[in-house]
UniProtKB/TrEMBL annotation:
SUPFAM superfamilies: Nitrite and sulphite reductase 4Fe-4S domain-like, Nitrite/Sulfite reductase N-terminal domain-like. Transmembrane segments: none annotated. Gene3D superfamilies: 3.90.480.20. This is Precorrin-3B synthase. GO terms for molecular function: 4 iron, 4 sulfur cluster binding; metal ion binding; oxidoreductase activity. Pfam families: NIR_SIR_ferr (PF03460). Keywords: 4Fe-4S, Heme, Iron, Iron-sulfur, Metal-binding, Oxidoreductase.
């Protein structure tokens, strides 16, 4: 069993993280679902308290950065908007769900299960003790969020059947109507046996099963009802307050730092960066970063993640690993000077 030397310090709204550019809070969005009214509140809070942007995360949540040390007024606004329904459980409401579920494809619409799971987790006082990194997932059968390293995942295998995955390892068969009860039961068991472990894969007997990442393709998609929707991926997962307001409808934030918009609108196409590159905040936002990674990543179009240090914050699955080092970067462990990064990564992408 893995032994952690320090407690989990995953940020929330009431447990802000002190970064070089100010306080940072993370707002949980169960299943990535966020209403138009909540988007307006997030945009206003970014303008009034933060750096003016809403930052998408690799778990389908959002972050606000550049905040003052005291975030009480911010928490009040988020609470009024329904974005902080249970302060005791705020850091454990980490629920992925297939972003296109109920819109296009999939065997089961898992959106109702997201709401049911959120309610059930908040109703269990013991689950407030889950580490902030513990992750639930509800996969509608297409295998997208089942590949995102969830601790506990229910994946549909038919319209009336599914399977429980623990650290990616398939287990018992579970019909949709019993999925939430099983997930809560397994999470409670984890709290009893975890010791200092943060993740299921850290327990004896669990190594974690890796599956190929299956992000929602960027661009237009056909809905099951004959209409069209759109998936947009802003550069580095960062949206200005004005861009957030431009959605003008309920949307789904994905774990690939993109946004699913149910109704296609051509004007939103400009929000996508057109590249596969991602990056942590880097300098000057993070004191631990060795470089301004976002500036260095801008010329790159390959599927790669730039990290300012070995923590590799926000690194997506299956992205080329690019870590800042002395006078350059380590690309999958090999040192490369900054001026050669674009060519080296392009070559990796063509293999």
């Amino acid at each position: 069993m893995s032994v952690r030397a320090r407690p989990d310090a995953c940020p929330g709204v009431l447990a802000a993280h002190d970064a070089a550019d100010g306080a940072l809070v993370r707002v949980r969005l169960p299943g990535g679902q966020v209403t138009a009214a909540q988007l307006e509140v997030l945009a206003a809070c970014a303008e009034d308290f933060g750096d003016g942007s809403v930052h998408l995360t690799s778990r389908g949540n959002v972050q606000l950065r550049g905040l003052p040390p005291e975030t009480g007024e911010l928490a009040g606004r988020l609470s009024e908007a329904g974005l902080l329904p249970a302060p005791s459980h705020e850091r454990v409401r980490n629920f992925l769900a297939s972003p296109l579920s109920g819109l296009a494809g999939g065997l089961v619409d898992v959106r109702p299960l997201v709401a049911e799971l959120d309610t059930a987790v908040r109703a269990e006082p013991a689950l407030a003790r889950l580490p902030g990194r513990f992750l639930f997932a509800l996969d509608d059968g297409r295998g997208d969020v089942a590949a995102e390293d969830a601790d506990l995942c229910w994946q549909a295998t038919g319209s009336r059947d599914g399977v429980l995955l623990r650290a990616g390892e398939p287990g018992v068969r579970v019909p949709p109507g019993e999925a939430v009860e099983m997930l809560v039961s397994e999470a409670l068991r984890f709290t009893e046996i975890r010791g200092s472990a943060w993740r299921m894969r850290e327990l004896p007997g669990f190594s974690g099963v890796r599956r190929p990442s299956r992000p929602v393709p960027v661009g237009a998609f056909g809905r099951d009802d004959g209409g069209r929707g759109l998936c947009v991926a802003p550069l580095f997962g960062q949206l200005t307050a004005a861009q957030v307001r431009s959605f003008g409808c309920d949307v789904v934030v994905t774990p690939w730092r993109s946004v699913v918009v149910p109704e296609f609108r051509a004007g939103l196409l400009a929000l996508s960066s057109g590249t596969g590159v991602t990056a942590c905040i880097g300098r000057p936002g993070c004191a631990k970063s060795r470089a301004d990674v976002r500036a260095d990543a801008r010329p790159v179009s390959a599927r790669a993640h730039f990290s300012g240090c070995e923590r590799r914050c926000g690194k997506p699955r299956d992205a080329v690993d690019v870590v800042a080092a002395d006078r350059g970067y380590l690309v999958d462990g090999d040192w490369v000077p900054v001026e050669a990064l674009a060519d080296v990564l392009a070559q990796k992408g063509n293999r």
